[in-house]
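User: I'll paste a sequence; please echo it back and then give the predicted structure.

Assistant: Echoing your sequence first, then the prediction.
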Amino acid sequence: MTDFDAGTEFDRQIKTLLDLGYPALAQTTEAAFLDLVEPLREPVLARAASLRPPTEGRIPFLLVVTRALVPLEEAVPLTTLAVGKSRPGVIERFYAPGELERFVSLKELELPEGEVYVAFDIDRGEEFCDVVPLDALAALEERGRTPLTIEEGLAFITQYPGALAKNKCFSLGGTRLGDRRVPALWISKGAPKLGWCWEGNPHTWLGLASAGGRSS
C-alpha cells in the first residue's frame, strides 16, 4: 500500500484554503483562521494509522468550513474542475433567492460543534449512480455511514477537484429543506454546479456521497 502522511495532507488542505482566500471571506486574519483549524490536526493524527491514501472517488479526511464562517454563495465560486479550462463554480438558478440558506444539515447527523471540523472517509458514492436517492440513503444507514452536507461536498471538490467527474457526480443528502429536493453537485458548461434533484428520481450520472465519521 502506498504510504500516506496524514500530517502532510493536513498541511496541504490548510494551504489550499489559505491560497483561495478563506480567511478574508471569513472576515478574519490568517492567524485567527489558523487558530480555528489547527486543533483539528489532533483528531486527524489520532486516526493516522487507519487512514487510507486518497483515490479519485474516496479520500481519508476533509477540513470542512461551515457556512457560519464562509457563506455558501462565496464558497461555490471558489470550486473548479480538474480537467480542461474550468470556470468557477455556480449555483443552480432554480434555487429561489435566499432559499439556499434554508437548506440545513439533518439533525440526525449530529455534526460537530464549531465553525470548522474534520470529516473522515469521504466517498463520492458512484456505486449509487442510477439508484433512487431514498434507496441510496437507506443503504448508507445500514452501513453506519451518513450522507454529506452541502459544506462537506464543497470541501470535497475544493480539496479534490478530480472527485467531480463526468458521469460521476453526487448528491448531498445530508442537507435538506424538508421537501423532496436533494442538493447535488454536477458539471454544467465547464464548471461545478450546486443544484438539486428529486429524492425519488434516479440519474445514471449522479451518485450519493457519504462520510464514515466526523470530529472537531
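The radius of gyration is 16 Å. Residues 6-215 form one domain.
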